[in-house]
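User: For my dataset I need records formatted as: sequence, then structure tokens, nothing else. Please produce one.
Assistant:
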Amino acid sequence: MSKVDTRDLADLIRRPIVTEKATRLMEDNHYTFEVALKATKPQIKAAIEYLFDVKVVGISTQRPPQKRKSFGRSVGYRPQYKRAVVTLAPENSLREVFFPEV
């Protein structure tokens, strides 16, 4: 496994995804993020561990199919994105990231 440059890790994680399903998964210590299209699982793991100082146990990635979008007569497509569901060790949590205390 090649060493990942820590300067590039912040660019891999785009944003957390907070949907109804993702919120349900948080109860089982699974957190969902939108990541760069070319990010690999080892790079995503290194980025999450470096940015949030947690231990990652597993990662699942998905690239949902592109959706069509009509613009008058012409037809285009919505931008492609990649979703990563990150499983953390039982003693770790990212609730502060998703739900900051007011």
